[in-house]
C-alpha cells in the first residue's frame, strides 16, 4: 500500500477483486468466503482497514443502485 502507484490503482484492485467474487461465486456462502479472503489478503499487504471498508461500501452501494431488481422491492 505504500508503493509509488497512483491512489486509484489501490481502489481498482479492491473493486476488481470484489467483481470477480461476485461474478464467479455460485452461492452466497462462496461469495462470503471470497469476500473474507479478499479482506485478509488486502490487510496482509498493508491496506488500512478503513480504506478497505470504504471501498467495499462504495462498490456495494454502486452495485445495488445498478440492480434491475431494485424497483421490485417495496
TrEMBL record:
One Pfam family in the UniProt entry: HTH_animal
Domain of life: Eukaryota
Domain Helix-turn-helix: 1-57
Matches recorded under InterPro entries: HTH_animal (IPR058912)
Record's protein name: Helix-turn-helix domain-containing protein
Amino acid at each position: 500500500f505504500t508503493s509509488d502507484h497512483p491512489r486509484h490503482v489501490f481502489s481498482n484492485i479492491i473493486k476488481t477483486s470484489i467483481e470477480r467474487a461476485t461474478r464467479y461465486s455460485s452461492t452466497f456462502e462462496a461469495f462470503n468466503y471470497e469476500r473474507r479472503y479478499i479482506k485478509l489478503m488486502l490487510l496482509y499487504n498493508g491496506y488500512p482497514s478503513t480504506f478497505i471498508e470504504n471501498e467495499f461500501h462504495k462498490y456495494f452501494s454502486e452495485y445495488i443502485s445498478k440492480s434491475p431488481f431494485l424497483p421490485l422491492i417495496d
